[in-house]
Structures are given as C-alpha cells and as structure tokens.
Amino acid sequence: MQIYLDYSATTPTRPEAINVMQAVLTQGWGNPSSLHEWGQRAATILEQARMQVASLINAPAESIIFTSGGTEADNLAIMGVARLYSKPQHIIISSVEHSAVSEPAKLLESWGWEVTYLSVDSKGRVNPSHLQAALQDNTVLISIIYGQSEVGTVQPIEEIGKIARSAGILFHTDAVQAAGRLPIDLNKLPVDLLSISSHKIYGPQGAGALYIRPGVKLVPLLNGGGQEMRSRSGTQAVPIVAGFGVAAELAAQELPVETPRLIELRDQLFSQLADVKGLIPTGDLIQRLPHHASFCLEYADGEKISGKTIVRQLNLAGIGISAGSACHSGKLSPSPVLTAMGYSEAAAMGGIRITLGRYTTQADVDWVAMVLKQLMSRLEIRHALVAN
Length: 388
Description:
By secondary structure, the protein is α/β, with parallel strands linked by helices. The protein is 39% helix and 13% strand. The chain is built from ten helices and twelve strands. It has helices spanning 15-27, 37-56, 70-82, 99-110, 128-134, 157-167, 238-272, 307-316, 336-340, 362-387, and strands spanning 3-4, 64-67, 90-94, 114-118, 139-143, 170-174, 193-197, 208-212, 279-281, 292-297, 319-320, 351-355. α2 (37-56) packs parallel to α7 (238-272) and α3 packs parallel to α4 (99-110).
C-alpha cells in the first residue's frame, strides 16, 4: 500500500489537464504573439486559460499575468514594486513567509531597503495591530502569506488588506497554498497582488500566475517582447498554461464539496493522533488550511531524532509526508517558521507536515494514524532508553 500525503509540496496532474495539454501540443502549438491562424489559435487557448484562472479568485481576466510558478509570481510582486523606486524604501513581511518572499526581502535589505519582519504568535498568526504599528511614511509594500505551507495557519488577510488599503500601501499575499482550497473573492478582498501556483491545484508544474489589481503598476523582471500585458516578457508555455486553466476551473467547481471533505479528514487525523505521546500539533487548529495537519516531535534533538526521521520511516511504510517546509526538506537545520513561533532549535528540527488531497480517503487517514502511532511508540521507548 502506498499513500501520498504531501499535497502541499505538489499534487498529481489531473487527467483533464493532461488531456488538454496533449491536445494543445498537437493542435495549438503556435506562438500566441503571431497574427496568422496558428498563432491566433494558441492565443485563444491562452486567453481561455486566463479567464479560467481569473474565475478561481473572482478577478478580471486582464489582471492575471502568467509566470513559471509561485516563486516567480512572488518575486515579480516584491521586486516589481521595489524597482518602481530610485531610492530604498520600507516594506513589511511576516516572519513566517515562504522563501520566495523572504529571500527577495533579504536582497532588498542588502540594497539598503528597510524590511520589517512582523512577529507571529505561538500559532504562527500575525497580529494586525502589530502591522498597524509597523507602518512608516515610506512603507510601500506589505506582503503576508495567505496560508502558511509548513504549519497551515491562515492569516487575517481581509483585516490586513483593510489596514494596507486605508494607508495607501500596496498589499501582496502569497496564496499558493490557499487558492483552490479556500474561497477567494478578489472583487471583495482588499488585495493588490496575489500569487498562485498550478501544481498545487492538480495542474502541471512550471506554471503560475500573479494577480495584479487593475491600476497597479510593476516594473517587469524580464525584458523582451512585452508579452503578458508587458509585465512578463517571453513566449508563453501555452500547453502548460492550458493545463493550469483546466485545473483552476475544476478546482473552483469542486471547492464547495472538496474543502469540507478535506476539513473532516484533517480533523479526524488530528483527533486520532491527539493522545500520541511526543507528538504536538503546530499552527492554528481553527484558522487553518483545510487539507493541512502538522506536528512537532517533543523528543527531537536534531541529531538522532528529527522530522526527517519520521519522514524516512513512513516512507519505508509506503507513506509520503514531509519534514517542515518542502523547499527545505533536504536540509537538516531548524525550521525558521517554527523558531519564529517560539520553538527551540531542537524542537524546530522536529516538524512534520501531513497534507491531504483529492485522492485521500478515510481509510488512508486511519492507516497513517495507526502507523504513526506505532512509530511514535518506538521512538518514545528509544528516547527513554537514551535518557536513562
């Protein structure tokens, strides 16, 4: 038996997306910038995908810029705003951002920009009053992640957006983990820039999008032919974008049923593991991504016992999960997200993440809970022997 429970890292490309990609590769392979029939056929496919992705977040189609993924979308948002200014300004991000936001912020710091890293509480949640207090006259951008990929906490995005909007400051949110799993309505939500990734919603890897609110200006990262409304030059990957569009459309259709189903499975997993010694839930258990469960190992020491220990042991049992953030799972170092939440360095090496998806069943949850209980029991005995 093999059970994949790492849907926050990536999702399997759904058959409907693969089918449309195959059709585009054979019939719609033209350059969408070309004026002839082949090019216009590709352009039509591209614009259909743009409408599909826009509909997922209830945004106008012209506000969607296709990118190579969530990382590029985040970088375009952060650096695209920064490059509007000839002199360093001030930006605010949270201390639990994905590296696709925190690393560009560090780069700006090296260029003389001032960056405020908002602290979070023990659940990984930003306090809007702290954001209000951090505003400065030269603050030009606020970037707060929508749903934290490592611990699952959902931030108070609407409240944060209202603070930014009332201060006349641009607000970006990395919604890579939230889009397609939580309802997002950008006709109502006070957000200026929002990042999405195709492969988190059962689309192909290699595609993403940045929502840019109409009227907001960015300086492109890539210069060239002026594609994507002059915001992202380069010939678009039409087959991949077409697959992204289909995945987005189906995610929107299934969300009213799939999200409650995932919440029920997630909560049952938490319940089944509630009495397991040495396994501590992390993140906000209420304001949380619907598919996401995460824990910290009480006995983690960063050497003999860590989150990677659990990942390896479960992998031997045919179960796929991750240790901490997927983008750092190959590196044994304390999770910056868990340390920002107040965990010790040793404990911050003991984070694990179990994320569910459209192919996860109740039987999968029951089996994984049983295997994890047995594994934790062995680790507890091992820890007790070492301690004595």
